[in-house]
What we know:
Helix content: under 10%
Radius of gyration: 18 Å
Largest sheet: 4 strands, antiparallel
Strand content: over 45%
Strand order of the largest sheet: 1-2-3-4
Amino acid sequence: xxxxxxxxxxxxxxxxxxxxxxxxxxxxxxxxxxxxxxxxxxxxxxxxxxxxxxxxxxxxxxxxxxxxxxxxxxxxxxxxxxxxxxxxxxxxxxxxxxxxxxxxxxxxxxxxxxxxxxxxxxxxxxxxxxxxxxxxxxxxxxxxxxxxxxxxxxxxxxxxxxxxxxxxxxxxxxxxxxxxxxxxxxxxxxxxxxxxxxxxxxxxxxxxxxxxxxxxxxxxxxxxxxxxxxxxxxxxxxxxxxxxxxxxxxxxxxxxxxxxxxxxxxxxxxxxxxxxxxxxxxxxxxxxxxxxx
Length: 293
């Protein structure tokens, strides 16, 4: 039991520690006995504060990178603050990974009155570099509900980038953005139904608040199908691709080697926190960790 958290949004671990985010707080636990080591973070604009929810935590060799609205923050493994970099509040999707001498991140852009979500490289000063994937995301005032999600469907492991591409597969790129392999996913798409829309709107109302939701509810459009990928993890020579296709709570999952060889197709059993989302989870050492209320 992790008695300190009430409504966690994200969970990940390295070899010795477990990291959980809840709102603007980050909790660090021991992987040995799951006892709380330290908690840090609060709402604000200071160097140890976060404007909005912590989006993702990325453990590195000797630090953790914390993604939040408008910046990425670096902390030592014990939670001690190191430094931060500002990012664009309006275009950043809060999903940056360190890579070689820079970063990989998801961003929103407007081109000819159309919205696009992209995965691109950045240098150490957060200047934009090469774009590796780019998806239509609607237009200003009419945002595709899954348009932004496709641009956060990537993972970085040992200076390789694993990202959903426009062909409905996952491409593997090197640190220069050169495509090395493609990993096929399901050929058939998973239908998005009116029941799914109801669940997402219910969630939006809960997350945004009733007043804000009433203002924004007509700004979103819903597609006929789910994206080809829900999430992915890479560790110890294996790539785990979890799709939206499911039978009850059993999600169709593909496992590949990091060199692109298919190992197996299987199902991953995930507990759902509501009608649409699983509880926070990750894969480590070929085991599933999920934080369940």
